[in-house]
Amino acid sequence: MIAFLAICLPIFAVIGVGFAAARFRLIQPAMIDAVGAFSFLFALPALLLRLMAAQPLGRSFEAGFFFGYLGACLTVFGAVMLAALPFRRRGPAAAIGAAAAMGNVGYLGPPLLLPLLGERGAGPIAMSIMSEVAVVLALGSVLMAPAVPGAGLRNGLRALRSVALNPVLLSIAGGALLGAAGCRCRGRSSASSASSARRRGRRRCSPSAARWPG
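RE: above sequence
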């Protein structure tokens, strides 16, 4: 429990500091947009590509977890949307349902899971992102369309295009293909690097490693 809190508290502390900085206008909105765009277009896709390519496809994808997570997301989406329909139109109700079903796994999953599970956490993170972005968000976009002829079809095509060009989903697919082909992009996670540093420190401090003159 202490180890988990030691991982979680700094992450949410950074989120709180960022919220306070934006709330009191210590940083400009353009800076927030730039950091968000860099994270979405480059940093997160690069991380997921490396993690997915570092292990075989069989270890990255588990059908039971994927369909279980997707089913939970769709259940929450449908329940919240139905609860909101008596008070909202279909579009806003679908937006509320999609917001309730999505857990922001893309940004919170890597810093929370990777220190605990290492590269084994890449598969659950990738499957969660695929469930939320490729299915829930796309379905929500279609249902949020105005109730006019042709609007649903246009929104559906726009949602399919955004899914097909989503850099995070493309990086997951590319990493899975590299992993299936045996092209390993191995790297050192923060957890393994910290473990190696501790081992090196113990070796330096051990009496057997000391060199005595003589």
